Amino acid sequence: MLPSLVLPAALSAAPSAVEDRPAGAAALDEVALASGLALLMTIALGVVVLAHRSGRLPALTRLMGRMDRSRAFGSLAPWAQVPLMVAMVSLITALLGMYWDISLHIGLGRDEGPLANPAHYPILFGLFGISAAGVLACALPREDEVGPSGVKLAPGWHAPAGGVLLTGAGTYALLGFPLDDVWHRIFGQDVTLWGPTHLMLIGGAGLSLVAMAVLLEEGRVATERTGRRTSAVATYVLKACLVGGLLIGMSVFQAEFDFGVPQFRLVLQPFLIAVAAAFSLVVARLWIGRGAAIAAVLFYLLVRGGVSVVVGPVLGELWAAVPLYLAEALLVELVALRLARRPIAMGVASGALIGTVGYAAEHAWTQVAFRLPWTSDVVVEGVAMATVAGVAAGLLGALLVLGLRRDLPDTLRPRLLFGLALGVIAACAANGVVATHPDDLRGTVAVSEAGGGEVELEVTLDEEPDGGPAWLTVTGWQGGAGTEGLVVDHLEERGDGVWATTRAVPADGTWKTMVRLHDGRQLSAMPVFLPEDAALDEPEIPVEDGTRPFDEEKLLLQRELSDDVPGWLWLAAGSVVLLCSLALLLGLGWGVQRFARTTQPGLGAARGPKVPA
């Protein structure tokens, strides 16, 4: 009932003035209401699980029986079918909410309150659904159905490893919601996709697909232990959808680039695309078979493109561009013609080609589809990062498939390769987020009134960018809901350090309008117009002729961040999130390895359910 009461008001309300929106955490009554809702859903799920385990709720048993008789999902064990269906629907629901939420923040800025943002509801219910799917996967199978990879939860209760992993990934993502409020109370609101708690939401949801792949294989092995065989066609389609979902989950990290308001260096975009493509598509081709990389990309385009259509034309919000990944899929399929029987070599070769040839293909696509196309400024570093990270991600994809195939060597080598690949990707990501800003760059602005609160600008820089900048734009955002809440205008060079807008840009109301310069490792911005913000005790910066300094871009894009928080607290809080993320990654690695080791042909049936050490 709660969403039906809140959503209409949230959708119909006109955007409030900036100073009317709280700048910190949510009001305590909203925290209590949201926490109460989450508690009720958790209690309801617990009641269902306990009733099923005790035999007092036969509905789930009857549902699994009907699915088993109908041979749905190609005769996959029904205790795996139900959670996989719940998880896939939940993931798509959360995906829609995430892109809707990002669009609203770009157009409106910070929330008037978490319950006033309609996009938070599909995110919350979607992430809860992922966690609930994991709980169902742990609860549904009987003692003799799980197989040797099962984890002992209680006497007489063994849960599939994939179910445990899915519960962990979903819960990790769901915890991002309350921790986000804690983060806002300490550091202020961070209106950026790459806030630490936001990365928990995205990372947990995206990596839940790895857990789902393990669960699928456990269900398939359990079916074949009974003497039945799963349908090859149905299994192919199901796996292609799962890996397509994995590609979607990995691509959400790029969302700020998709909308055209990234807050980090442009080299991160080709790096993120290469990691998503190499990891997901190598998994698709090696795990599923011929043509699967292309099939996974088609599923990705259908769902991810569909979300853009729903958020954009249907809901009337901002359009998010969609990386294609088609060239990368073709490259993986071509490499597999020679190296499909050598997974590690195939992963490395595919990653290298994705980082080079795939980079060129996506470069061409950004010129057509993205608000911030790739430029010559990022080519050298962009190709280097995409290639190195692509190789590492391809290697991780190959290791995952070896585990899912139960071919993982029982040596130290896979663990070393796993750690090395993760380290390389982490190092590339750290390099991408580290930026500087010039100490003495200034710009002189000449303003021409264009009417309707808009102006045309000429900007004279006292120092020319070194070569072609990655971007030099006038960006106006947070001007209102819908497609009119964002303007990105690429400045046109007039000569002698003079750059001019190509269209009128907004400079009144709630707009935050600034000149943004990204050159090499430097990210800087110069305010054109910033509104008064009483909640932040920030004065208006009016649009006017004159000379202004370029400053650290983050200070303008995220005015809401507190500037009086000690550095050690930033380090401590970030380290906690980092350690939790590392625990999730290591947990997934443990789960894949457990499945591979305990279900090797000739071993699993003899061992029976294995109690964890």
From TrEMBL:
Keyword list, A-Z: Membrane, Transmembrane, Transmembrane helix
TM regions (residue ranges): 32-51, 72-100, 120-140, 161-179, 199-216, 236-255, 267-288, 293-312, 318-337, 344-362, 382-404, 416-435, 568-590
Name listed for the protein in its UniProt record: ABC transporter permease
